[in-house]
C-alpha cells in the first residue's frame, strides 16, 4: 500500500469531452471518450506502432504491435477511463485512468508529430473532466523529474507532488470529494 498524499482541496472543474479546439499548428483537434469500435482501436494501435521509442517511459507504451494490442486490451476495459485526441481520422494522443486501489493512475501519450502544440493540455483536461463526471475521486501519476515541461503542466492543472524520493516525482490530484467528506461537520447526522 502506498503512502500517497492528495491535496486537501478538490480541483476545479474540468471540461468533459467531447471538446474541440485548434492547436498551435492550426489543426482542428477533438478530444473524445474512447469508443469501442474497430476504427478507433486500429487508429490507436497505429499511433502507438509509430510512437517514438525515446518517448516511452517505464516501458509504456510497449513496442511491437502484438505487445501494443495486449497492453491496449488491458487498459481499454470497462474499469478504465480513456480519451483520444483526434486530428481528422488520425489519433494524435491518448490518455487513460487505470484503477489502483482507491485511486486511478493517469498516463498520457501524445504522438511525436503532435507534441508541443497544446494537445497534451487539452487531452489531460478532457480526461480529468471525464473522470470527474464519472465520480473518480483521486488521481496520481509519476513523471521523470527532468521532464520540466510535463511537471509544469501537471502543476498548472492542479497536481501536487506527493513523493519526490526517487528520480521520478509522484503527483496527486483530488478530483471529487471522498465519500463522507461532504457530510463532515454538518452536525445533523443525516
Task: List the main descriptive attributes of the protein structure presented here.
single chain, Aminopeptidase, 25% helix, disordered C terminus
- What is the gyration radius calculated from CA atoms? 17 Å
What is the count of β-strands?
Answer: 8
- In helices, the fraction of residues equals 25-40%
What percent strand?
A: 25-35%
Described by the principal axes of the CA atoms, the overall outline is globular
Structural class comes to alpha+beta
Tell me the number of structural domains.
1
Distance between the termini: 32 Å
Second-tier CATH architecture:
3-Layer(aba) Sandwich
Low-confidence stretches: 182-190
State the fourth-level CATH superfamily: Gcn5-related N-acetyltransferase (GNAT)
- Biggest sheet: strand arrangement: 1-2-3-4-5-6-8-7
Q: What is the ordering of alpha helices and beta strands?
A: EEHHEEEHEHEE
Overall average residue pLDDT: 90
- Number of H/I helices: 4
The largest β sheet comes out as: 8 strands, mixed
CATH fold name? Aminopeptidase
Description:
By secondary structure, this protein is an alpha+beta fold. The protein has a single domain (19-178), classed as Aminopeptidase. The chain has four helices and eight strands; from the N terminus they run E-E-H-H-E-E-E-H-E-H-E-E. It has an eight-stranded mixed β-sheet with strand order 1-2-3-4-5-6-8-7, with helices on both faces.
Amino acid at each position: 500500500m502506498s503512502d500517497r498524499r492528495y491535496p486537501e482541496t478538490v480541483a476545479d472543474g474540468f471540461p468533459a469531452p467531447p471538446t474541440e479546439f485548434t492547436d498551435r499548428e492550426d489543426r482542428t483537434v477533438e478530444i473524445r471518450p474512447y469508443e469501442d469500435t474497430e476504427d478507433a482501436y486500429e487508429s490507436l494501435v497505429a499511433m502507438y506502432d509509430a510512437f517514438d521509442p525515446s518517448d516511452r517511459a517505464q516501458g509504456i507504451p510497449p513496442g511491437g504491435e502484438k505487445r501494443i494490442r495486449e497492453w491496449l486490451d488491458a487498459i481499454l476495459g470497462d474499469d478504465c477511463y480513456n480519451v483520444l485526441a483526434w486530428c481528422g481520422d488520425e489519433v494524435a494522443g491518448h490518455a487513460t485512468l487505470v484503477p489502483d486501489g482507491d485511486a486511478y493512475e493517469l498516463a498520457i501519450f501524445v504522438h511525436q508529430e503532435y507534441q508541443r502544440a497544446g494537445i497534451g493540455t487539452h487531452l489531460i483536461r478532457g480526461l480529468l473532466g471525464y473522470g470527474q463526471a464519472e465520480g473518480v475521486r483521486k488521481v496520481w501519476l509519476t513523471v521523470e523529474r527532468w521532464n520540466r515541461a510535463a511537471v509544469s503542466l501537471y502543476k498548472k492543472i492542479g497536481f501536487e507532488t506527493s513523493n519526490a524520493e526517487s528520480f521520478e516525482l509522484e503527483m496527486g490530484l483530488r478530483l471529487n470529494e471522498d465519500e463522507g467528506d461532504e457530510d463532515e461537520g454538518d452536525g445533523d447526522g443525516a
